[in-house]
Amino acid sequence: MNGEVKTLFDGNDLRLISVSRDPTNLLVSFTVRPVPSRLPGPFAKPFADKRNYSGLYVVSKWAHWWQTSELYDVEELINKSGKIADAHNCLAYGASMGAYGVLLTAARLGIPRALVAAPQVTFRNDLVICENPYAADTDKLLFREDDARDGMTEKCEYNILYDPFEEFDQVQVNLISDSLNVHKIPLPFASHSPLELLKQAGILGHVVESALHGNLSKIVLKRRIRSRRRHCPLYMIKMAQRAEKSNRYPLALKLSREALLHSPNSEPAFRSYARLLRKENLYSLLVSASEEYLAINKDDLLALENLRYAYSGLKDYVSAEKFAEILINREKPSAQDYSLYIKILIRNANVEKAMELATIGSGKFPINGGLQVLKLQCLYLLGNYDEALLLANSLALRADISSIDAKTVDDLNRRYAHTNL
Which of 8, 126, 150, 236 is deepest in the core (most CB within 10 A)? Predict the structure, then answer.
């Protein structure tokens, strides 16, 4: 059954999409914080479509945390649709910023049950005593409703998923009173992504369905997670990070490797394992891991960079140069890519090519002092002493050059001082 899809509202800040299928089961969702370059789709729509549920999807067009008068227009249209009153089972569903919208509106829309993950509740400085990871967005907002708890009542049953070790999320959840119809469900090591952890464990659909029908069991959920968590890369990565903080590096390596074995296509798992290998200078293992990841994810930049790093560590500078060249030839190489490639070329005594790239790189990134210093080094190595002296003098006058780069310039000038006479 395809269902009838309608856009009930399309404003500057919000969009409301209605999907009519089985009227007895209704999902009302609020989107997560949008990425500036891409508008989010209706949150959890594929899940509802697969189960033939009707849906009302509130889509945010930017990171406003629902501080817009359009929210009241959307609420009015939801009430007028009659879908909530007609549904036998109805669930409000959202995560992070979407959870703020759920907590704020579910009860006043007459929705009997809510499922939220890693919710924000308020950003008031007198209540949130830890660092706000969303300050770049929230500090610009004029909050109409600055505390989502104001919308919460005992008429709605709230199931709240969160990681008790994630400080900001823990602070937010602690603000919610236990005297309300609230079930707090801690999911250790889920980070800010409880839904992703449930998805990796293969039980996200079951959890949402259970919440919709009002029979989500905290005990059963914890038992299921406990039996499946070692198959969840997210859980294993967080465990590895915890082991690393305790200086238990062999255990951290084992856990991050297990995460990658369970999910060889996982970028976070590979990144975690590769970072630990680099930290422990295990270059041969880093080569193997990067090559295995590249076999699945062809031309992956993270794997290529780790291969370059590993071969440099192994002092195989020919191979290191090969992978550095691949990185520099991509569409938008960074200043760091240029710097790394130039250093390898100098190490391999290919100074003319290093000079060519230093000229290109310093032209693309004129404020990057490190590239200018590498160019200076190439000039000295090639015997272009007059030009080197001019560049050294100009660098000495720059206020933005780092202390490390300034020291390198002084060292180079002293080393080649006899050539400037």
Answer: 236
Q: How far is CA 195 from CA 200, 259, 337, in A?
A: 9, 18, 36
Distance CA 54, CA 265 (A): 34
Residue that is written with structure tokens 């007459």 in the block: 110
- Contact call for residues 8 and 81 (beta carbons, < 8 A): yes
Query: Is the distance from CB of 286 to CB of 278 less than 8 angstroms?
Result: yes
Q: Which residue has the tokens 């009930």?
A: 8
> pLDDT digit string (tens) for 244-301?
999 999 999 999 999 999 889 889 999 999 999 999 999 999 999 999 999 998 878 8
Q: Dump the DSSP string for 283-304.
A: HHHHHHHHHHHHHHSTT-HHHH
For the chain, the C-alpha Rg in angstroms (whole number) is 28
DSSP 362-377: HHHSTT-HHHHHHHHH
Longest dimension (CA), the chain: 92
**Environment class of residue 154 by beta-carbon count within 10 Å: exposed (0-12), middle (13-18) or buried (19+)?**
exposed
Determine the Cα–Cα distance for residues 348 and 357; give it in Å rounded to an integer. 14
The arithmetic mean of pLDDT across residues 347-372, rounded, is 89
The CA distance from 200 to 207, in Å, is 13
Structural tokens at position 259: 């995460």
**Which residues, in sequence order, are CB contacts of 181 under 8 Å at separation 6+?**
154, 155, 156, 157, 158
- Structural domains present in the chain: 4-229 (3.40.50.1820), 332-421 (1.25.40.10)
State pLDDT tens for residues 199-253.
999 999 999 999 999 999 999 999 999 999 888 999 999 999 989 999 999 999 9
Over residues 360-371, the pLDDT tens digits come to: 998 899 888 888
